[in-house]
Amino acid sequence: MNHAMIAAEALRYRLKIVRAPLVQDDQWNVEELAIASITAADPAVDGAIRRIAEAWIKAGLEPTHLSVPWGGPRVDQLFGNRPDLVDALDDILSGATRALRAA
């Protein structure tokens, strides 16, 4: 699995959850954030991706779909029932912003 692609989809999904008026999607370069989060080798980001992937697979979702846009009732249900996974999304976003600030 490509962790940068998973991180990008995680970030897109997180931004979708808090859409306008709180967040303007066009202000974020999701790919840049995803690459920054992975190349920084932040253990919090690695752990967040692992937790999401494990829950995703346990929920019966196709593992290959981690690398494509997330959506649909099963994905929404997974994150709706697991606030810890929303925290994992936030861990990825925090790791990405820390990495970009440090660059």
Question: How does this structure look, described?
Answer:
The protein has 103 residues and is mainly α. Helices cover 68% and strands 0% of the residues. The protein is built from five helices and no strands. It has helices at 3-17, 30-39, 43-58, 73-81, 83-102. Helix 2 packs across helix 5. The radius of gyration is 13 Å and the shape is globular. The relative contact order is 0.22.
Briefly summarize what is shown.
Helices cover 68% and strands 0% of the residues. It has helices spanning 3-17, 30-39, 43-58, 73-81, 83-102. The longest helix has 20 residues, at 83-102.
- Spatial separation of the terminal alpha carbons: 26 Å
Count of alpha/pi helices: 5
Outline: globular
Sheet-strand content, in percent, reads under 5%
Pick out the low-confidence regions. none
Helix/strand/pairing category? mainly alpha
Total strands: the figure is 0
Major sheet = none
Compressed to H and E, one letter per element, the order equals HHHHH
Radius of gyration: 13 Å
**What is the helix fraction of residues, given as a range?**
55-70%
- The average pLDDT value, as a whole number, equals 90
